[in-house]
Each structure stands twice: as structure tokens, then as C-alpha cells.
From TrEMBL:
SUPFAM superfamilies: PUA domain-like (SSF88697)
Species lineage: Bacteria, Bacillati, Actinomycetota, Actinomycetes, Kitasatosporales
Domain ASCH: 12-138
Designated name of the protein: ASCH domain-containing protein
InterPro entries: ASCH_domain (IPR007374), DUF984 (IPR009326), PUA-like_sf (IPR015947)
Signal peptide (from-to): none
A Pfam family this chain is assigned to: ASCH
Amino acid sequence: MENREPLKPYLLAYPGPLRDQLVAAVLSGQKVSTTGLLAEYEAEKEELPPVGERSALIDSDGREVAVIELTEVRVLRLGEVDLRHALDEGEGYASVAEWRAGHEAFWHGDEMREALGDPGFEVDDETLVVAERFRVTERF
């Protein structure tokens, strides 16, 4: 960690048990993909990250625990997410339907709706998502 340029933080979920679970899955190699809402990027006025971007994976305590490098970034309709992507999220989903139910629960939660500024936010098959694939390049 010494003498390196600061990296943009890579945040999975919100601090707490879910983030801890996701970070552990990344560190174990089970999680090599993630999905976010394009609306999140728009609400935060952020550009999509480019392939090759390196970021610091952050745990619930705000510590950098690893460096990840993006290997793929795709924007697609929620209805187009396939089984490979769902399995590669490393959260134990056995089907796209299970994956989607878990993600809809998160995206329809109070924290996400507040972040988007839309208390009634809901997703459907046409909702645009950002599917990212990554690899761990360094652990701290």
C-alpha cells in the first residue's frame, strides 16, 4: 500500500452485513461480477467506469481491503441479465429469478430509494443496469 496513487473507492451495497458478505465473496474469489442501476450513476452525476480502471475495494469499516480491476462494463436491460452473470455475483443464487428477487429487494429498499430521490422507485425488465466484471489484483 505504500507509495501508490490513491484509488477511487469501490463500494458494494451499503456499510453493514451485506457489504461484509459481498467483500468476503470478492476476497474468496466467489464474486467476480456485480450489478448496479444506471439510475445510480445518473443520480450521482458519475460517468460509467472504463474497462481497466483500478479501484480500492472498501469494507464496512471504510478500510481498503483490495485493489480490483474492471475487466468488463456493460449496460443492459434488467430482463437481459443471464445466468452466468447471476452466478458470478457469488451470492449463492441458483437461477436468474433468485438473483433478480434479491436485487429487487435491495433496489426497492429505503436506502436506494433515498439515494435516487424517488420514494416509489421500482425496476422492471426495461430498467437499465450496469453489469461489471472484475478481478482482484492486490490484497491488503
